[in-house]
Design brief:
alpha+beta; two-stranded antiparallel sheet; 3 helices; about 25% helix
């Protein structure tokens, strides 16, 4: 089991979610976050609005998947989020020690779904 955390551009969210759905990955948590990367928060134009300051708007995706879905999830995120410009984002893949579905008490890969 793996826990995938991806930081992407806000305008790429719909494309990434569609690519994940195409790979039958439906369980996703999405958060609006602020952050900066290598560009150090350099002002950029986003939907005709110049955003200045040290922190830029980003979207954080959190996805728990069984091992067989890791490559498909990474491919879906990278193809959906790619623009070729600075700030496309990052993907982090972490090991999941245990997962428990609260409603049923199921554990492990079955609990992920």
């Amino acid at each position: 089991m793996k826990y995938i955390v991806a930081i992407i551009q806000p305008d790429r969210l719909d494309d990434v979610l569609q690519k994940l759905t195409d790979q039958e990955i439906h369980l996703v948590t999405v958060s609006s976050v602020l952050g900066r990367g290598r560009q150090k928060g350099i002002a950029e134009v986003y939907r005709s609005h110049k955003e200045a300051g040290s922190l830029l708007k980003k979207i954080k995706l959190e996805i728990a998947v069984n091992d067989g879905f890791v490559d498909a999830a990474i491919t879906a995120i990278t193809t959906g989020a790619h623009t070729g410009k600075v700030g496309d984002g990052k993907i982090f893949v972490l090991d999941v020690e245990q997962c428990i579905r609260i409603r049923t008490g199921e554990t492990g890969g079955v609990a992920i779904g």
